[in-house]
Design a protein that fits this description.
By secondary structure, this protein is mainly alpha-helical. It contains 3 helices and no strands. Helix 1 (about 15-45) crosses helix 3 and helix 2 (about 55-70) packs antiparallel against helix 3 (about 75-100). The radius of gyration is 17 Å and the shape is elongated.
Length: about 100
């Protein structure tokens, strides 16, 4: 049985912080799994392998994430870097999924 995490501002011990971080990390991985399921769908739907990489869409996705970071008051550059990595990993995953079909 896992503990229910406290919101960050309510934490007073490192144990509480770690429970929150570990819980959030599990949730993030689950969200990534959902995101990659969309890459599977894209690989199934796109007409050809050359349609997988779309630099305009990549820029849009990263800019959307950066704007959300600004709106939420988290470091925009960090989010931009994370999304650059995420989008490139998603493209690689989608290419592999396309090749498997």
């Amino acid at each position: 049985m896992s503990e229910t995490p406290l919101p960050g501002p309510a934490c007073t011990t490192m144990i509480e912080v770690r429970v929150g971080v570990d819980t959030l990390d599990r949730e993030l991985v689950a969200l990534l799994a959902r995101r990659f399921s969309y890459m599977d769908a894209a690989a199934r739907i796109k007409p050809g392998r050359d349609a997988v990489r779309d630099e305009d869409r990549k820029a849009q996705v990263i800019e959307n994430a950066r704007a959300e970071a600004v709106a939420l008051g988290v470091p925009e550059a960090v989010v931009g870097d994370l999304w650059e990595t995420l989008v490139e990993a998603s493209i690689a995953y989608e290419l592999a999924a396309f090749d498997r079909r």
